[in-house]
Amino acid sequence: GENVEQHPSTLSVQEGDSAVIKCTYSDSASNYFPWYKQELGKGPQLIIDIRSNVGEKKDQRIAVTLNKTAKHFSLHITETQPEDSAVYFCAASKGDTGFQKLVFGTGTRLLVSP
Amino acid sequence: GAVVSQHPSWVICKSGTSVKIECRSLDFQATTMFWYRQFPKQSLMLMATSNEGSKATYEQGVEKDKFLINHASLTLSTLTVTSAHPEDSSFYICSAPRQGSGGELFFGEGSRLTVL
User: Fold this and answer.
1) pLDDT at residue number A95
2) Per-residue pLDDT for B34 more than 80?
3) Res. B101: pLDDT tops 80
């Protein structure tokens, strides 16, 4: 089955710096790669996602890149702010639209210091 | 606002009792819902896929008699932890895909179970 690895496990940056989180996946059939932000005691919230027919996607300060050949994808956060501090999870699936059996990475705890 | 709601958000129970957690899709119908378990500082582990009108599909290693799942309507799935023990203490999260959202999964706020 699919296996998703995520690095680093913790990341500390200064406010205004950029943060990059990387994930690799094992199943070449995976075609959907979302990123979630989870705050303490809450459920995950989708922040950005990318499908295998696209190499990069950007939404304001957040961007995701996908390298299908190498089977890795990355989350980029620019101009980080203290409210970006949270745990971030990558995930992968090969479900069709409307059915997403996700396999999650191990999570990255991001701390943005003022 | 939240599109998937879980209840209760936290529950404390005694060993041997059963606890029911509800997951509701608020403004859409969900024929499929997913239940996850998350230990402190760890990732989400898929427990089972809840299917409306049919039996749930459990992941390997998850005891179906321990974690009863019922998806009786298109907006409600329930997870019952039967004869709970301290090792069942965890954060349980549900999710549901909304048609027309590109397959995006919406997650509930989670339910923290503590078994004494």
Assistant:
1) 64
2) yes
3) no
pLDDT digits (tens, 9 = 90+) for A46-91: 999 998 888 999 999 999 999 999 999 999 999 999 999 999 999 9
Chain A interface, mutation test: which of B105, B106, B107, B114, most A Cβ atoms within 10 Å?
Answer: B105
Q: Give the separation between CA B41 and CA A109, rounded to whole angstroms.
A: 9
Q: For the stretch A14-30, what's the b/e string if a residue is b when 16 or more beta carbons lie within 10 angstroms of its beta carbon? A: eeeeebbbbbbbeeeeb
Q: How far apart are CA A78 and CA B66, in angstroms?
A: 45
Q: Which of B32, B43, B107 sits opposite A45 (nearest CB)?
A: B107
Measured between beta carbons, the chain A residues lying within 8 angstroms of B105 are: 34, 46, 100, 102
Two structure tokens written together for B69: 């799942």
